[in-house]
Amino acid sequence: MEKIVIQGGARLEGQIPISGAKNAALPLMAASLLTSDTLTLGNIPDLADIRTLSQLLTALGVGLNHEKSAEKTSLSFTARDVYNTTAPYDIVRKMRASILVLGPLLARFGEATVSLPGGCAIGNRPIDLHLKGFEDLGADIELADGYVRATAPKGLKGAVVHFPVVSVGATENILMAACLADGETVIENAAREPEISDLAHCLQAMGAQIEGLGTERLVIQGQPQLHGAQYNVMADRIEAGSYIAAAAMTHGKIEILGQDLLPIMTGFADTLKSAGVSLTPTDGGILATLKRPKVKGLNVVTQPYPGFPTDMQAQIMAMMTLCDGASVITETIFENRYMHVPELTRMGADITVHGSTATVRGVSHLTGAPVMATDLRASMSLVLAGLAAEGETTVNRIYHLDRGYERLTEKLYACGARIQRQKAENT
Ligand code: UD1
Question: Which of 128, 209, 377, 418 could pair with 221 in a Cys bridge, judged by C-beta atoms 3.0 to 4.6 Å apart?
Answer without folding.
Answer: 209
